[in-house]
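ok trying again, last paste got cut off:
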Amino acid sequence: MSISRQNLSVVIVTFMSEDVIHNCIKSIPEEINIIIVDNSGDKKFKENIEKKYKNVECILSSENIGMGAGNNLGLRHINTDYAFIINPDVTLEKNTIDELIYASSTINSFGIISPIINSDKNFNYKLFDKNDLKKNSINPFKVKSVDGFAMVLNIKKLNQIKSFENFNFFDENIFLYLENDDLCKRLIDNNENIYIIPKSKINHIGASAVSKEYKQEIELSRNWHWIWSKFYFNKKHYGFFIALISGLPTFLSAIIKLMFYFAFDRKKKDIYLHRAAGYLNALLGKKSHHRPKILY
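nice, full thing came through this time. structure:
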């Protein structure tokens, strides 16, 4: 079965995303149902967004559960065969959905398909062969992984894999970063296919899913979680030693920069402190517990 507008839902995880979410929703065809999981638990946001858009249902999480767990929560509330996971700072082109639908009818089997980012400088996928960058510009092609800000999941196909049962698609131990890489690796390990659809394009602002007034606090959180998630991902899939070695240069660099900025640049000092703390917490086997200090 191929994708259609009737058997496709959109899942968006938000957190203080009022600045960008409206452009995102407006770019999605009105006949496609949208599930928003709001990690800030903002009742006013839910009321306003559901009142303004008839095709949107907003679920409020009881706490900030992160991207992976938020996506899983949203996926448990859909009843379609396919789910388009997107970030709130993504907008679709006019033919994004139509190209995904057409491509899905030409591919024999896939676990994930993804549009391509509308940029000449950035890629939203990783190839099996890094030297094969000019492989296809028109036809769908297989990739090793796709970025999590835009990916279509084949729900029926994923539910056939034992480790994905009950919509446990994203590893909920990961709060932020690499939850998409983890999902893609587990799919590849189960001999499922991941495709990029070059004719289907999206726009992604990047690092803009949260309102700008929280910029510094979100930056601290990103630095903590990036290195924690990298260690966790490598440990899970390649072992403790690989995780230790791959993260050590970043950790040592963070310590040096922390000492350098300690006395005269508090913002940069705090960034490198959080980066180092993320590595240490992962090294000690502690959970991904850091949360941005935002009152809401």
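cool. The radius of gyration is 19 Å. Residues 212-283 form one domain.
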